[in-house]
Specification:
- The complex is a heterodimer of chains A (241) and B (255).
- With 241 residues, chain A is α/β, with parallel strands linked by helices.
- Chain A is 35% helix and 25% strand.
- Chain A has a 6-stranded mixed sheet with strand order 6-7-8-3-9-10, with helices on both faces. A 4-stranded antiparallel sheet of chain A has the order 2-1-4-5, with helices on one face.
- In chain A, a hairpin with a 2-residue loop joins strand 9 and strand 10.
- The longest helix of chain A has 18 residues.
- Chain A starts with a strand and ends with a helix.
- The two termini of chain B are 20 Å apart.
- Helices cover 85% and strands 0% of the residues of chain B.
- Chain B has one domain.
- Chain B has 255 residues and is mainly alpha-helical.
- The chains are: A alpha/beta (241), B mainly alpha (255).
- At the A-B interface, helix 2 of A face helix 1 and helix 4 of B.
Chain lengths: 241, 255
């Protein structure tokens, strides 16, 4: 569904992405992991066309994205930090995004009711807490039931209840045959929802493996243990050399 | 583009700074116009208010607003819309709101107390200045990554056009006063939108000679009619050039 080929991006002398090639298939939930500054957000932003890569190509549904913009109607994006015009109400923000994406009139408003966003739709964005703003962002990402969902730190700042609702929604959408890309530092939140793990460090791809493979390799059951074990092995390998 | 613009305006007309800006302008206009019996003098004072405040407020407010909207612009750009449409919609929304504040704040009192051609010219120059400095703010926004540096650049630009430029022009005129520099001075004024706005107004007020060298030159060489057209065309270039440049830079900008 998404095909990334030899993607490279530098900011000045800093290499944010170094020759990354990846393939994402539909019906999978892929976690992008890695320390701060490893290039996760740059990768996501490249897919969204927010960052323009130096080299390499990205194809979505077999079409190269280049200067095209229509491909984004297949994508729902939930940003890491949601900031909206201060004096707009929640209802207005949702209405606006609906107006912008006129091509789609079938709305998935399940999250809006489940997260209780519909009950506070007349509140202005200025008066909302960070967590509530995250809820609005989540609702907007799922609203058009797009084929690809890109979620940047979706559970950071959400209360446990909302976080569970969102996780259930992610599993449900993935089972419908959608592709979900998630970045998160909270590995325990990704347990049970993720199928594949992409690990980036200093802009380089360290590994891209399914959770089953990782489980097999490390004989651990928790995602954070698996990752830690793999990283230890990698470290040991490089140390020997 | 219209959709985004509509919501930006809806957000901005409830913005406290915009409301306060309109109220202060209205209070100033009413008091200045009712102090003096001669409405032309009142208009001249309002011109000075316009020339000082409109560039400064427009460029500062717009720069801060653009930088504060960066996450929102990102979200919009993740939707199926063109990049330049999002940028121009933000510009249009800001310009409409700031112009509305100016036209209500200054326009309403002026039109009630002394409705004439000079008053309309004053509003026109204020309106054009708003368009220009909001466009320059947009250019600053796309050129700078950092908000603080952007605001610094905005203040520097406003100071350059309202204060520094005239000083430099004066030095130029003094140093070359033995040469025929009339036409050169005419040309140089086109590089400062604030001077252009001042000239546009003064050509209407019959006090062109009082405002010094460049005003007198305009009157002498171009006359009121041609002079005004020339000034307005120059000012429209000052709107278009920053806008076109912003769109070009924004096309390749990483967010």
């Amino acid at each position: 569904m998404i095909h990334i080929n030899a993607l490279t991006k530098s900011f000045g002398s800093f290499k944010a992405l170094d020759n990354i090639s990846l393939n994402f298939a539909k019906g999978r939930t892929v976690s992008l992991l890695g320390p701060n500054g490893s290039g996760k957000t740059t990768l996501i932003k490249s897919i969204l066309g927010l960052v323009i890569p130096d080299k390499g190509t990205i194809s979505i549904n077999d079409k190269q994205i280049g200067n095209d913009w229509q491909y984004r109607s297949h994508i729902g994006y939930m940003p890491q930090i949601g900031r909206y015009p201060e004096n707009m109400t929640i209802g207005q923000v949702i209405k606006m995004i609906k107006d912008i994406r006129k091509d789609n009139v079938q709305y998935d408003e399940e999250l809006i009711t489940q997260l209780g966003v519909d009950k506070i739709s007349s509140k202005t964005m200025r008066s909302l807490s960070g967590g509530t703003r995250q809820k609005v962002s989540a609702c907007l990402a799922f609203l058009f039931s797009p084929g690809i969902l890109i979620l940047d730190e979706p559970t950071a700042g959400l209360d446990p209840l909302a976080s569970e609702i969102l996780k259930d929604k992610i599993i449900q959408e993935c089972n419908k045959g959608k592709l979900v890309l998630i970045t998160s530092h909270i590995l325990s939140d990704l347990d049970g929802i993720t199928n594949d793990v992409v690990y980036l460090q200093d802009g380089k791809l360290i590994f891209y493996k399914s959770v089953d493979e990782l489980q097999h390799m490390t004989s651990e059951t928790k995602l954070n243990k698996m990752i830690a074990s793999v990283m230890r092995n990698e470290h040991a390998k490089t140390a020997h050399v | 583009m219209k959709t985004i613009m509509k919501y930006v305006v809806a957000d901005l007309i409830r913005n406290k700074v915009i409301v306060v800006y309109a109220i202060i302008l209205a209070v100033l206009s009413f008091s200045v116009l009712s102090i003096d019996e001669n409405p032309a003098k009142g208009l001249l004072s309002l011109l000075n208010v316009t020339l000082l405040f409109v560039p400064l407020i427009s460029i500062l407010f717009a720069t801060i607003y653009y930088f504060n909207s960066i996450e929102f612009i990102e979200l919009l750009l993740a939707q199926p819309v063109r990049r330049n449409k999002v940028l121009l919609a933000e510009y249009a929304g800001l310009t409409i709101s700031l112009s509305l504040a100016y036209l209500l704040g200054v326009g309403l009192p002026v039109m009630i107390i002394s409705p004439n051609l000079a008053a309309i010219t004053l509003l026109m120059s204020g309106f054009l200045l708003t368009l220009i400095f909001t466009a320059i703010a947009l250019l600053i926004f796309v050129l700078f990554k950092d908000k603080t540096k952007g605001i610094g650049a905005a203040i520097a630009a406003a100071m350059f056009f309202t204060l520094l430029f005239d000083g430099l022009l004066l030095i130029f005129i003094y140093s070359f006063n033995e040469y025929p520099i009339d036409k050169a001075v005419l040309g140089i004024t086109a590089f400062n939108p604030v001077d252009l706005a001042r000239i546009l107004m003064l050509l209407q007020l019959d006090v062109a000679v009082l405002m010094g060298y460049s005003g007198a030159l305009f009157k002498k060489f171009l006359g009121t009619g041609t002079g005004s057209v020339y000034v307005v065309v120059c000012m429209l270039f000052w709107v278009l050039l920053p806008l076109l440049l912003s769109v070009r830079v924004f096309r390749k900008k990483d967010l």
